[in-house]
Amino acid sequence: FANMSHTLPPPPPPPVPPTPPALPSRQASAAEQDLHVRINITGEECEWAWEYPELQLGCYRSRVCQFEAPKRCQYYSVDSIIQEGPTCGLTALSMLLGGQPTAEDLLKDALAQEYTLNGEIFSGQFMYELTRKYLQGRGACQLHEGHLNCHKVKELLNVGGCLLVPYDTDVNHAPCLKSGHTAHWALIVGFLVDKNDTYYVLARHGKTRYLAVWPLESLSNSNANLVEFAQPKGYISSEFVVPSGGISGSLGLNERSILVNGLPQQVVHVR
């Protein structure tokens, strides 16, 4: 018989293994997803907060709890909103309300109420009235008169409250003492207590997307030094609404803040 060769066809490739199910993980907030920088933290600095990128970056930038976890830490994960024009107070209020209404919508109302001309809010009373109006059904608020570094404010934060606070902002947006010449509004969304029992607040405001970490005492001192209106930079020829008695008066900003509680959002308990 003649030699005959028969080449068998190659075997079919093995089936593709099924994709393993994803492991459950904490859902990052929109604010965390929107950070446009890479967190480049060397060594073990703020390693305790690695599950909370915005908090980890805030503590790293402020050199808070670098190598040891705090005793307590909790906050609301609130999406940041960048302000347009001198609308820091209205932007902070919009952040508190989850972006609805927008700062633009709040500005229209504030203009109609004659609280502002350009978006500025130099009155704690005006801010309280706006907050109370738009917070209906979402929580409760109170106009606080006095120092921020007190038991009342700490207890509010401990039970999951927030604050709207005017203060003097430095070049890095941290609280400073400039007699009210750089007055700005921030939304306090949580707190942190370090190993030395220093009490810090976690803040959002309209000039940055980063979560800020400030000593409560520094914010309190800044809030208490708001005594004199100064024409904001970039608005030399603009007119602004300053309440009767100035920013140091009973309708002004000095030692004024808005306490908010009963919000429906879930508090993030870190420690």
Break the fold down into its secondary structure elements and pairings.
Blueprint: H1 30-33, H2 53-62, E1 72-75, H3 88-96, H4 103-112, H5 124-134, E2 140-145, H6 151-158, E3 162-169, E4 175-176, E5 183-193, E6 199-204, E7 212-215, H7 216-224, E8 256-261, E9 268-269
Antiparallel strand pairs: 1-5, 1-9, 2-8, 3-4, 3-5, 3-8, 5-6, 6-7
Helix pairs in contact: 3-4
Strand content: 15-25%
Distance between the termini: 85 Å
Query: Mean pLDDT, rounded to whole units?
Result: 88
How many helices? The count is 7
Main sheet properties: 9 strands, antiparallel
> Structural class of the secondary elements?
alpha+beta
Percent helix, as a range, is: 10-25%
The helix/strand order is HHEHHHEHEEEEEHEE
In terms of quaternary structure, what is this? single chain
Principal-axis shape: globular
Catalogue the unreliable spans. 1-8, 16-38
C-alpha-based Rg, rounded: 25 Å
List how many beta strands DSSP finds.
Answer: 9
Describe this structure in words.
- There is one protein chain.
- The protein has 271 residues and is of the alpha+beta class.
- Strand 3 and strand 4 form a beta hairpin.
- The longest helix is centred in the middle third of the chain and has 11 residues.
- The radius of gyration is 25 Å and the shape is globular.
- The termini are far apart.
